[in-house]
Amino acid sequence: MNTLVVLAIVLLLLMAAIGGKKGVRSFVALFVNFFVLLVAVLIMTDPYADPIVLTLIACAIISCVTLFFINEVNSKTKTAFISTLVTTVLMLLFIFIVTEQSMIHGFGEEEVEEQTIYSYYLGIDFVKIAASVIIMSTIGAITDEAIAVSSPMFEIHKHNPSISRKALFLAGMRIGKDLLGTNANTLFFAFFGGYLALLIRYKDLEYTLGEIVNTKIFSAEMMTILCGGIGVALIIPITAWITAYVLTRR
Amino acid sequence: MNKCKNMLMYRENGQWIYWGILFFLCLGSLIFVNYNYSFYDRPIAQVIEISDERQVEVTDGSQNHDTVYTQSLVATIKNGEEKGQQLELTNEYSDSRAYHPKLSKGDDVFVSIEQTNTDKLVGSMLDMKRDQALLIVAWIFIFVLLAVGRKQGLFAMISLVVNALIIAYALELYIDTSNISLLFIMSGAVIVMTILSLLFVSGFQEQTYAAIISTLLGTFMLLFITVLVLWLTDEQGLRFEEMAFLSRPPQAIFMAGVLVGALGAVMDIGVSMASSLFSLYEKNNEISIKDLRESGIEIGKDIMGTMTNILFFAYVSGTIPSLLLYLMNDASLGFTLSMNLSLELTRALAGGIGIVLTIPIGLYTTILFIHRKQVKS
Question: Do A192 and B149 touch (CB under 8 A)?
Fold first, then answer.
């Protein structure tokens, strides 16, 4: 049997055994998200579709699925959703500038050498696609952190309804800070794991540090790590502020 | 009271010094990369003029339309023997910019110098100089993490650097002594990184030990299950050609990547389980094992969905450009997906299995530690 199918079945069984209904929902959510990503990619092949707009829509749907389907629609998940959207827009702007300036868009030498049979004159904007790759890699972490910060803030407000906006915001910041380390770590290790093969190639070919740092693929991956870190940090004050604002309106 | 105020002043002063030092380091390093040409062996040239730009409309075999531009450029060589001389360059890029970038005035590029027969030098462009942009983003990263996370932000960065160094050292060891398996070396690295990172996060206390044990058990269980499934299914459907650029057997490198990639997420689960159960115990020292188990499962349910999602997107998003390349060259959807995604999906699924497994492992390990404490007291 196909390895991927067996692994997927193992994961489903484990999630169902440990998480019950919510576990099954989490598994289904993974597939829905995969499907959303795939549809976004298929639409991107149209040269008239703007990859940035598509990415924003895809990110919105993905965080909807993660927040509203795995959890439920309530005021906590709604504020988390708004915070995710705001952060995504800000990060996309920043990342777009970064990719344009550092010219990490498109394929690296290594990749082009490997796939010489393909045409690279595709008529779609790879600068925008590079930006979309970076934000998509971190959307999971950003959404996770939004709900992890906003949900305890609601609890704090429930136990102490007269709390001031500033005190609530600071409480949210404190919660977020404690999560920052482990969340950033999750992303960093995931990226390291993916880049091991590339690092081995560089070492085998005896690239010098100066050469490695300037190659397109390596700098693109460093940028992904750095932007991911910026994203998981930036979501904290944004969520804390939005949640504090929503709770102390009136 | 006065003493308190003095201490506050002192702290504020300390903060100013701290930010000041950072600011100067930032400025100094930016100036350095701006003028570091002489540290490179490969010739670097700076574009000073775009003398000509021609464009041609092209249509490829799959009916994709694009415009190809040919830039003729004049650049000054910034290092090496020909330093200061002018160089003529050509650069070809397309509207989609899938390979070469569009050059503009002031860009630094690595070049190869081809002819030196006349007084004018001719060369071709190899790659961009990207260290400057990388450094700027790195500083933004440092400032944002420090501004938001303060001490925790600093810790996150230190652990990033330390773990990166450990991985680099492990790779070095693997390449120098090619008779030891990479998986074995990386397992060692995983143990060291787990212990260091978790001690760093929560210090020498019982809950840290519980987190370390559950993380290691979870990670190696995940490795065991993945190896077993790969062996039982004969790696059917996995396209190791994707890693063909390696001059080494890709399977071992892939498995090492799976191990390292899932470690962060598994650690996160281990820490969450241990710290939340210990805080329940601290609130109520008499709490029953049954209550602990129920709360633990609830906590686990909440985190497993989002954690698997994090890993999934971190892995799969990177394939978007290749997916587009294949699809727009009229490759079938099935071929495109299996060529580009089989390994990434395996990573994501294996990581997910690790995450979910660590929930009960973390739960029972922590309960064991708490039970021991309860019996003692």
Answer: no
